[in-house]
Design brief:
Helix 7 runs parallel beside helix 9. The N terminus is likely disordered. The strands form 2 sheets. The protein has a 7-stranded mixed beta sheet. Strands 7-6-9 form a 3-stranded antiparallel beta sheet. The chain has 9 helices and 10 strands. Bound molecules: S-adenosylmethionine.
Length: 245
């Protein structure tokens, strides 16, 4: 369950990512993105009585939203010290008393805290760098209470001619993704078909309830990249519910 690419391990890159997002004006640019409003509409309007896990929570904005929507507890985790710091400032400034902050990678969290249980597990653009996404999601799904829900917002790279690249081999390859408009950052995303996510959830007893695809005006395959896999990029909002165990 190793993280092969993980350029977000690189502090400078994580900070650049946020400066790009913020330069474009997070509220204006990202909230106009269709995945964003779809995710907001699909998740519970009220998290009363629910424990929430925010994986790779970044600056803590989503965690704050869960807190605002009355979550009993929000466990935020991020392995980046810089992101943890931003989330800690947010918690302090906005008095988010039911938000628990952990500066830890999801891999280590799963090893150390596998007895924890949640009613809602959320990941927004933090899982695109894991080679073994299927196994990872199965382990994450084990943390859900029966009836609990999971939302994954992610980049899905679709290859035009899968016959040329067998699915299991695709995840060995990365494609350069560009994020931002005036300021830009280039990231390496693994090619992971949707099926790898869904199989992982299914193995963990989570049935997909909906998946919606969106195109983005904010991220694209890097124009300078020659794209040998003929991949196309979409954002996906995957929603599932734990049905067994
Ligand atoms: C693209 S940012 C998304 C942040 C936030 N979820 C959002 O949507 O605004 C990816 C985040 O995942 C974190 N991250 C990357 N790999 C991680 C890992 N293995 N465990 C925990 N966090 C990780 C990064 O530090 C970064 O804050």
């Amino acid at each position: 369950m190793s993280q092969r690419i993980g350029h977000f391990d690189d502090e400078a890159k994580v900070c650049l990512y946020y400066s790009v997002v913020e330069a474009a004006g997070r509220d204006d640019a990202l909230q106009k993105e269709s995945y964003f409003s779809a995710a907001l509409a699909a998740m519970p309007a009220d998290f009363s009585g629910k424990r929430v896990l925010d994986i790779g929570g970044g600056n803590g904005a989503w965690s704050e939203l869960f807190h605002e929507r009355n979550a009993k507890e929000v466990v935020y985790l991020d392995k980046s010290p810089a992101m943890y710091q931003l989330a800690a400032e947010r918690k302090k400034t906005n008095c988010l008393q039911r938000m628990l902050l952990l500066q830890i990678g999801i891999e280590e969290y799963l090893e150390k805290h596998n007895k924890h249980r949640f009613d809602f597990i959320f990941s927004s653009f933090s899982l695109m760098y894991f080679v073994h996404i299927r196994e990872l999601l199965t382990t994450i799904a084990a943390l859900l209470n029966p009836g609990g829900e999971m939302m994954i917002i992610t980049n899905i790279l679709t290859v035009e001619n899968p016959a040329a690249q067998p699915e299991q081999e695709l995840l060995q390859h990365t494609v350069k993704i560009e994020l931002g408009n005036e300021s830009r950052i280039v990231l390496d995303n693994l090619i992971q078909p949707l099926s790898h996510y869904l199989d992982g959830l299914n193995d963990g007893g989570v049935a997909e309830t909906s998946t919606k695809f969106f195109s983005s005006n904010y991220s694209r395959i890097c124009p300078e990249y020659d794209n040998p896999y003929k991949a196309s990029l979409n954002q996906a909002v995957i929603y599932g519910r734990k049905t067994i165990r």
